[in-house]
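Journal club prep — side note

Before the paper discussion, L.F. wants everyone to see what a predicted structure for a comparable chain looks like in token form. Sequence:
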Amino acid sequence: MALTLAGPAAAQDPLSVQGPLVAQASAAGQEPVVFDIAEQDLNAALLLFADRTGLQLVYDIGLVEGLRSASLNGSFMPQDALTRLLAGTGIAFRVSDADTVTLERVALQDNGDTLRLGPVTVTAARTATPVSELAASVTILDRDDIEKQPSLQTQPLDGLKRVVPGIQFNDPAGFDPRLRGRRPSFRVNGVDLLNRGAPSRNDIQDLVGDAFGRIEVVRGADATFGQGASGGAINFITPRPKPGPLQLETSFGLSFAPDGDGPDRLTERVRQSATGTLGKIDYFIGGGFTSFGSEFDPEGDPLPDDTGVTKRNAHEIDWNATLSYNLAPSATVETSHYFVHNFQGERTFQTVFDGQGGIGEKSTVLRSPDDSDTDGSRTHYIGTLKYQNSDFLGNLVSVTGFAQILDEDAIGQGNRLDWQRGKTGLNASVDTALTFLDGLLVEGASLEWGLDYEYAWSGALEFDGAPLQAGLSTHNIAPLAQIRVPVADDFLLSAGVRYEQFFTELDDARDRAFGVADFEGGNLSYGAPLFNASLLYFLSDEIELYGGFSQALEILGIQNATTSVPTASVIEPEPSTTDQFEVGLRGSWSKFQGSVSAFYSTSDSASSFQVISAPQTPTGVRSVPLREARRLWGVEATADWQATNWLSLGGLVAWTDGVRENDEEDWVKLRQEDITPLTISPYIELTPSEPLLFRLQATHEVGTDARREIFNNVDGFSTSAKTFVDLYAQYDSTWGKLSVGIENLFDEFAFSNFAESRNFNRSIPFEGRRITLNYSVEW
């Protein structure tokens, strides 16, 4: 019998297990069947169930990842057997027709009675883990959530800030973002986007919002994700295959700024996808083309085109593909690919540095001359190959290989920038059941252990063919172990350790740009252990209380350091570690779901380097990580209430503040770009009839007081309060889905906290009102 099974996938994509022929399936569904299914991985157990009954099961893979089935032995009618198999998982099923059974999470029954939601898993971690087993704050956006935030298509952070607590960024383009005051790890299908040599270059402009089916955000320092996750991890996941006959989806969209003038204001996009089963392979293939127009502030003035930072007046081609092959009932192989090419021709608008742009005053932006040489392009590819076996000698084994290549070519300020970088590596882990611990109070303990390896390289950053920063390559080896121990049904203990070891080779750099002295390369090495421990207490079936400690490692800006010293021998890398403590409460009460958490994090050094005097050395200087101790603290809360069948309310509240130690060893408040001022984001969602949906949401951020010594010992300025309101409407019918979004509905004029607090001479306001139209159809 041929079985078709998709590998791990996003929760919005159905997984289909095919049984025998329809005639056989119908007969099987009406007679008792003998089962002999041991307690095991739920996905594998469902495969055996489909094999025995001949029924077709359709379900979301996110429902079953990380779950185990009950045992099933004896003769049962298929419906009774499936009920027993799913016992305790929180998953319900309904009969779609004589041969098809659909599994799903259901929040409400038709009579309004509440059901406990089934487990939601997070795949951003090494293995799929139910949220209820994570001592961390988590936000998950499925495809419907993404569509309700049109700004995700052009500026991913702008859309995420409206629905994820704690996100902050330094300018309207979303450059160098923060999560809980620290840099997060941005990922595509689990592969980190952060530049290994210059961590402020996070490459998030290569994220195409409508190319993804799911976004997972784990907030706060987490050793699980390795280096670069001091603020947490944000994983963008491409759609997974839908096994079965060929299914096509076509979408068209356009957006424009009604405050702008001229044809430059229109952005157009088209996207096509195909999914299904070909032989024994399940596949998803999708791609799109976008022509971006100009953006305008609320006063109708244009915003500048920054090559390599924004997508204004650029053209973008992207495609992604996922192929899945079921080797055996418990083993799958899956490969995913994500590619984007962005080309920006001559700038349409650019900033003029004429002294304008002080407090409350925007910089001058003019149309570029016809002969300006300001073109640029970026090409980014990320690929993975994953093997997973849920029953390899009784263990869950997962091995993932990955590769990333990025080529950047841009012109700005009269100089051509060329930069290539990439990485390849392997993540391997084994999850072993510790059955010898089973006893009176402990049952179901497990140990996950493994090894991560990464080889990353970053070519010399060149201007007009001359290097500025030296190229580098780094080998990163990280063994790890994590133990999970359920105690007395009410508690879950977890603890782990990970050791990060780095071996970096810096290249020579001769005849450097801008007259910078030559650099002599060399080898560097450093490492550090990272620990975590947590305790979850299940107060009831619906409510969980958790607390934990976790460490994370900053990516050191070693490549940046090569611009200010003559040789690698004076660079002394030291691990920059963040310690985070967090407590939280989450749960589901009747028609209300909510969470609240508080955190405190500390670090003693930054990821950037400083040059200090060292008379005893041949060069007279040393380059060491910047000694800037930081302490941050904050509170976050989320709420969602289904008031009636047609009305939902909710939102989020977030606040982060902190202090840092200055050169005089005084503690001063953190800069405004490193904190999250009190932010409140409520929403109201109406579904007056089946095909119609309306959503109104607002984001209000309070102002902040002036702060000391924010830049080169210069005191900063206060920031103003700002409020953005968005409206989204959707009509979904058998002939397709039509949606309309209006962002910044009331044309709020505001600057970023970074620009306001520093009296920056390049003050660019946020975009004004933008209208987005989209139509999609499945066929």
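L.F.'s comment for the group: The chain is about 5% helix and 50% strand. Keep this in mind when we get to the figures.
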